[in-house]
Design brief:
474 residues, alpha/beta, Alkaline Phosphatase, subunit A, two-stranded antiparallel ribbon, 13 helices, 18 strands, 29% helix, globular
């Protein structure tokens, strides 16, 4: 079988399996102008219920601190690992210290529109759309325009390839997935199973059942199914040493991802007979593990240029996950964010709820760090790692615990999108709305307006357009 190459660089194997390859510089025929377009991506990871940041309010006629700052660094400016592990070690963002020089922590970003019904449901639909909403019933808000992942995918992905839409959380929830929107009132269903998404990405779901079963039962790796083409590729004399190392690393990463997915206790080996049904990937017990597996699939997707856009929603709209801290299961996170044992406004006080919220924030920061570590584990064809090729984004749809506000909603960016975004900084965007940071990210990965200029008009037309200058490399 002859090895086939195109702009997406696939190896075709047994049963129709198609494995996308990393960019191999020595096999690329340069265009007459500049070199090949750099593959840039944007992945968005969402957490809910706000973060444990400072709150001030009026008590007995005096303004004072109601809750202390436990999320953001102490001072704006340059980020360094030493600073994040030193003076700011008590802040949740210190969990990302190893990536300090490749981060932009962005405060001063606000939700654009009010939340007339449910703060959770009405907020999450605005997060990646910056669009007007229809509140509907308390838990059934809808966006009136598409989300940025769809804008990126429609403009940059291969024809017909949707953004990757993932969720670590239950289907049966008061507020389900509301992060990704194909268009007005068109919610994107999220894949709960990392293994299903991996199989789909590798083209295995269209392979004969016996081949699928061999993968699931670990009799074969995807690598085994493309072995002939892989050996033919490695035998080519025009394949440079760096590309050989990159290719070997890539195939090893595929195998590592498979082992990680198939060893996860959340995966049901019998899922092949009932694709689309949900097994225990939705269990609270494996919520963090499933989120990590989703991140590993996202990182592999970036390494093999599979998609320019993806989203991962961790937890339902009002995240009810009971996270683990110091060997004990915490109360539901939504209750912690209310500081009481209740989804409403009244209930018994949870002891040390502010501290527990901070610890959950740290769990989310470690989760995000897992994605960054996986992206950083792949060599980039352009120097550095795949993390440097794109931008990984962590955000919350609310700013704090009570009162679940919409001002100073946290946005954390990692990776410079191939040199288009400034990194190594903690900045204040000055109270801009979501559309400005979405424009900044979209333009950085290659999205343009109708006239071909860098994207600056995403989101509702009533909002002031533009990008956040402090994030843009000029």
């Amino acid at each position: 079988m002859r090895t086939r190459f195109d702009r997406r660089r696939f190896l075709l194997g047994v049963g129709g399996v198609a494995v996308a390859l990393p960019f191999l510089e020595s096999l690329h025929v340069p265009r007459a102008s500049a070199g090949p377009d750099r593959f840039r991506y944007a992945f968005f990871v969402r957490a809910g219920n706000g973060v444990a940041q400072q709150q001030r309010g009026w008590v007995d006629g005096m303004e004072q601190e109601i809750e202390p700052e436990q999320f953001w660094p102490r001072n704006l400016g340059a980020l360094t690992s030493a600073r994040m592990t030193g003076e700011d070690a008590d802040r949740a963002t210190s969990e990302l210290a190893a990536f300090a020089s490749r981060l932009s922590l962005v405060r001063g970003v606000n939700r654009p529109f009010n939340t007339p019904s449910c703060g959770h449901s009405d907020s999450i639909v605005q997060l990646l759309t910056s669009a007007q909403i229809v509140s509907g019933s308390a838990n059934d808000a809808a966006a009136l325009d598409k989300s940025i992942d769809w804008r990126i995918a429609e403009q940059l992905n291969a024809p017909g390839r949707d953004p990757m839409t993932l969720m670590a959380g239950p289907t049966d929830a008061y507020i389900r997935e509301n992060l990704s929107w194909r268009g007005a009132r068109e919610r994107t269903p999220a894949e709960r199973s990392p293994l299903n998404q991996y199989m789909r990405m590798m083209g295995i779901t269209s392979a004969p059942p016996e081949i699928q079963e061999r993968i699931i039962t670990r009799q074969n790796s995807v690598n085994d199914l493309v072995r002939d083409e892989l050996e033919a590729l490695l035998s080519r004399r025009d394949l440079g040493a760096l590309d050989r190392r990159r290719l070997t690393q890539h195939m090893e990463a595929i195998r590592d991802t498979e082992l990680s997915l198939l060893s996860c206790e959340s995966m049901d080996p019998a899922f092949m007979s009932r694709l689309g049904e949900i097994s225990n990937v939705e269990s609270n017990d494996v919520r963090v593990e499933v989120a990590e597996r989703h991140m590993e699939v996202l990182a592999l997707a970036a390494a093999c240029n599979y998609t320019h856009a993806g989203t991962l929603q961790v937890g339902e709209g009002n995240d009810q996950t009971q996270y683990e801290f110091e060997g004990s299961r915490l109360p539901r996170f939504h209750w912690i964010s209310h500081r009481i044992y209740s989804d409403g406004a009244e209930g018994e006080t949870i002891p040390d709820a502010i501290t527990l919220h901070h610890q959950v924030d740290r769990i989310h920061m470690r989760l995000f760090r897992h994605l960054l570590e996986r992206l950083d584990s792949y060599d980039s064809a352009y120097g550095g790692s795949v993390l440097d090729d794109g931008v990984a984004v962590w955000m919350n749809d609310l700013s704090n615990g009570p009162p679940h506000g919409g001002t100073n909603v946290p946005w954390l960016l990692a990776g410079g999108a191939g040199g288009r975004l400034r990194t190594g900084q903690y900045v204040d965007a000055g109270g801009v709305h979501y559309n400005r940071i979405l424009n900044t990210i979209g333009a950085a990965v290659g999205c343009t307006t109708d006239d071909g200029s860098p994207l600056d008009d995403f989101g509702d037309s009533s909002l002031e357009g533009g990008r956040i200058d402090s994030l843009v490399v000029t």
